Amino acid sequence: MFRNQYDTDVTTWSPAGRLFQVEYAMEAVKQGSAAIGLRSKTHVVLACVNKANSELSSHQKKIFKVDDHIGVAIAGLTADGRVLSRYMRSECINYNYTYESPLPVGRLVVQLADKAQVCTQRSWKRPYGVGLLVGGLDESGAHLYYNCPSGNYFEYQAFAIGSRSQAAKTYLERRFENFTNSSREDLIKDALIATRETLQGEKLRSSICTIAVVGVEEPFHILDQDTVQKLIDAFEIVGQDEPPAAEPDVATEPGAAAEEGAGAGDGAGQGAVAEPDVAPMDI
Amino acid sequence: MESNQAKPGLLCNPEASQRTLYPYVTGTSVVALKYKDGILMAADMGGSYGSTLRYKSVERMKPIGKHSLLGASGEISDFQELLRYLDELILYDNMWDDGNSLGPKEVHNYLTRVMYNRRNKFNPLWNSLVLGGVKKGQKYLGMVSMIGVNFEDNHVATGFGNHLARPILRDEWHENLTFEEGVKLLEKCMRVLLYRDRSAVNKLQISKITEEGVTISQPYSLKTFWGFSAFENPTLGAEGSW
Amino acid sequence: MTKEHANWSPYDNNGGSCVAIAGANYCVIAADTRMSTGYSILTRDYSKICKLADKAVLASSGFQADVKALQKHLAAKHLIYQHQHNKQMSCPAMAQLLSNTLYYKRFFPYYAFNVLGGLDSEGKGCVFTYDAVGSYERVGYSSQGSGSTLIIPFLDNQLKSPSPLLLPAVDAVTPLSEAEAIDLVKTVFASATERDIYTGDRLEIVVLNADGTRYEYMELRKD
């Protein structure tokens, strides 16, 4: 039942200097379906995989608009994610009320991290079980941050969290150096491919993923399903095991260049299993 | 302090009021305008205690952060308290050290919120504030009153300045004023105010804010001419009883 | 020390006039851009009109600081509404929200006189008119602010709206075309500017119709 005698509450240290409850919360992030974020100089693209809990249910919303200049993609406990995005929305509204200007992304991320940190130091609280990819734009440019339950936060060029995110990370690691000068379209394309990597051979369809964009002159918005499907078709992004079959009811662009399985095969099969003896605090 | 008891309903302790019901030491008009490269602002250095000229070296214009310049008329102590708020605000903003900073628009809005919140508590800061600044090539000039009324314009003036200086500014101001022309125009306004506003004194500062930052001039005085015969001997020709 | 001080007031009247006219498939909302205090003008170019939603436009006069606070409050509420409902608020919904917001401050009121114009769910023009503490009514046209005493009789005479006392109720929207309504608004402001010292400088007109939102401007007397 218990891993050891030091993991029954958040405020107890293990002799090795670890906080097991916090680490368990970070495990919750890995259980959730994947969320991906990447940025160029001018745009941030967020993507996520939508998994329905049962055949009979719809999937949960995993990408939230926070303000015109900020959005989040979450992995882990969606309920916690919703609470945190509501907090972020109200912070943005309050800042805007006082200064009539948008809240800088980095500052919101620190406030969010401080909120998560409190839960790691109070006996009557529980850490949030959700990882957030915060994408946004401010006067210092486009930013992508990852906030985790421990209260740590990191800035990234591109990142992926959630189940089977390692495959997407492998793809992003190979490509990230080009992202800074990517066009908006290329960024979306890379987001779609990275998303496909996490599917383990399942066919990429607009019904199982969500894409959102924020950029210069482009307020944060979630692309509608038709648009996403058209992009998938245009880029000919399909599952590696399946022949590239065009959707019969959607127009395809045969001229569009096909990304020739850049990440195919690599990440597939690698699960997101953490080595048990390494504290996952620093991811 | 009889007047303090005028509204016992509003004040819980009328004998020892902790609120500004009327100002003690006040500064008079501030005049400011946009020019080619930024904002120019002028204010004299007098601090009046009622009709007594009590202080003669009051600095009524201060830089706020990198991009803003604040000028104030009204209660000097309230202005100095406001400067402490702003100091904290700017310090906190700098501590993020993240490449973002509050520009003149943000500071102006913050000031508006402070003034309005204080009036909502029936405890106003007794000032008219002028806020100018430049950030990312954008010039900004605005005003806030004691009760939170706020607006932007190409030229603004507080108190008597709104009556005496702004008609001159409306006549002579244009978008492409050079620094020299701007200073000349401000001095013209300040001279009129000096002649006609009894609380104005002939010791003033002019400050400028551009993309490069704030510079506030040393105190100096304007050339005036008081030698009209009616000024020198106002009773000449008057047939008084004494 | 006996000294007479004018008692401090938390209010000011910054003047200005607002008009809104509802038509069958459009709504015109207009206000001048002068902002005054006492006998002096603070600025000649301050917009009293606030676009709160795609189909709801608010024009307000009175005490500028209260008006600004009210506008910001409504804008924030609308943002929250959009987050929660994934759509823009309708004009009648905004009308109710405005009423509640004003009434909430019943005992320290917003000194703001509002006209809310927009399009309802059928695309028909709608105008809501308010007092400072939140009582409101849907009408065919309305005016608020310092020049309203001059403007309302003018509109009454020109629009010959059916009496709200008629039973069964007759639709209050004006029979004018959009262009005629805009012309009427211009005339009405030019006239009010002649006699009301708080109205003038510039007229800002917002036209809402099926095509979207359009802004028009006209110079007014500056004296």
Automatic annotation (TrEMBL), chain A:
Its main location: cytoplasm. InterPro entries: Ntn_hydrolases_N, Proteasome_alpha, Proteasome_alpha-type, Proteasome_alpha1, Proteasome_asu_N, Proteasome_sua/b. Gene3D superfamilies: Glutamine Phosphoribosylpyrophosphate, subunit 1, domain 1. GO terms for biological process: ubiquitin-dependent protein catabolic process. Residues 242-283 are annotated as: Disordered. Residues 251-261 have a biased composition (Low complexity). GO terms for cellular component: cytoplasm; nucleus; proteasome core complex, alpha-subunit complex. It comes from the Eukaryota. Keywords: Cytoplasm, Nucleus, Proteasome. It is found in: Cytoplasm; Nucleus. The keyword Nucleus applies. Residues 6-28 form the Proteasome alpha-type subunits domain. The proteasome is a multicatalytic proteinase complex which is characterized by its ability to cleave peptides with Arg, Phe, Tyr, Leu, and Glu adjacent to the leaving group at neutral or slightly basic pH. Belongs to the peptidase T1A family. Component of the 20S core complex of the 26S proteasome. The 26S proteasome is composed of a core protease (CP), known as the 20S proteasome, capped at one or both ends by the 19S regulatory particle (RP/PA700). The 20S proteasome core is composed of 28 subunits that are arranged in four stacked rings, resulting in a barrel-shaped structure. The two end rings are each formed by seven alpha subunits, and the two central rings are each formed by seven beta subunits. The catalytic chamber with the active sites is on the inside of the barrel. This is Proteasome subunit alpha type.
UniProtKB/TrEMBL annotation, chain B:
It is found in: Cytoplasm; Nucleus. Non-catalytic component of the proteasome. Component of the 20S core complex of the 26S proteasome. The 26S proteasome is composed of a core protease (CP), known as the 20S proteasome, capped at one or both ends by the 19S regulatory particle (RP/PA700). The 20S proteasome core is composed of 28 subunits that are arranged in four stacked rings, resulting in a barrel-shaped structure. The two end rings are each formed by seven alpha subunits, and the two central rings are each formed by seven beta subunits. The catalytic chamber with the active sites is on the inside of the barrel. GO terms for biological process: proteolysis involved in protein catabolic process. The keyword Nucleus applies. GO terms for cellular component: cytoplasm; nucleus; proteasome core complex, beta-subunit complex. The keyword Cytoplasm applies. Belongs to the peptidase T1B family. PANTHER family: PROTEASOME SUBUNIT ALPHA/BETA. Keywords: Cytoplasm, Nucleus, Proteasome. This is Proteasome subunit beta. Signal peptide: none annotated. It comes from Prunus avium.
